[in-house]
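Support request, priority: normal
Reporter: lab tech (M.K.)
Component: structure prediction queue

Hi team, I submitted a job for L-ascorbate metabolism protein UlaG, beta-lactamase superfamily from Flagellimonas zhangzhouensis yesterday, and the status page still shows it as pending. I've pasted the exact input below so you can check whether something in the sequence is tripping the parser. The sequence length should be 369 residues. Please let me know if I need to resubmit or if it's stuck on your end.
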Amino acid sequence: MRIFKRLLKVLLGLILLIAVATMIILNQAKFGQAPKGERLERIKKSPNYQNGEFKNLSETSVMTSDKSSFGTMMDFMFSKKVNVTPKSKILAIKTNVKEIDQAEDVLVWFGHSSYFIRKDGVTFLVDPVFSNYASPFSFVNKAFKGTDIYDSSDLPEIDYLIISHDHWDHLDYPTILELKSKVGQVICGLGVGQHFEYWGYEQSMIMELDWHDKEVLQEAVEITATPARHFSGRGLKRNKTLWTSYALKINEYNLYIGGDGGYDTFFTEIGEKYGPFDLAILEQGQYSENWNQIHLLPRQVFESAEQLRASRIFPVHNSKFALSSHPWDEPLDEIIENNVKNIPVMTPVIGEIVRLNDSTQTFSQWWQK
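Reply from support: The job had stalled in the queue. We restarted it manually and it finished. Here are the results:
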């Protein structure tokens, strides 16, 4: 009986210790802050917010495997994986982004879903992650070798910082802190602004949008938040902030920023309402049949692009982090091999200058070298 009581005390002590440690970790600034006050009151009025959380337009399960969520995650973490990380350094170019001619309309990709755009003299930065990891902890989800050659100091002044959602591989706390003095305005989904305000950004710098909200940023530059099929959250609670894609129009140039998300019928609606698009930036990577409703599968990329009425595709969400069990280079192989619709595909090297107005620019299959 005494032994049982001692074991019970030890067990309760361990549970208490774990609970306290978890609370301390989750209270760190990098986890951000849940929406509150006037921001939360605005969120409650959104038609996309129900029963205390944001909802997708279609019924959506994060995990679609026959196994439990726990079982699926255990398989992902401990099953044997082949070639999920490259054996050698990823090919990358260290372009001096600050020195690119300001008259040029360009895009520079930094790997995964981070990229810089200058169009008609206006600068945009999308989902920048310059830490060499995509998680709360520096030893988890490390960047592939050779991909972390850029940091915030390499960038010029940014007119608009665009964030698709608050997952760690799209909203990087150290990067956001470093960028604060360079950013003119932050554009994000409802609730995400709470993180920025908590991290020291002035409320006046933050523009939060619901799906189909349109804002004129300056003369001939407008952005509309459009639906995405995904989820959000940086800690234990999900879907307190909105995930979104964007239609960005700069004079006559029309750009679709896909963010993260699975296939849904809204691509047709977006194409009809906001298209056609000169370029659609779509995720192609970190997919799995085990979570096939929250990430585009390879076969769905071209279908989505066609429904968006996109003239060109730039596949992102690959080549920097291993967040699924597919080979690291499979997403790019798949999109080249399955382009039955013959939509031009951009596959730049990290750091390569993409000329937005040059439809004749060609790209190598660098990942096969």
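The two ends are 67 Å apart (CA to CA). The mean pLDDT is 94. Let us know if anything else looks off. Ticket resolved.
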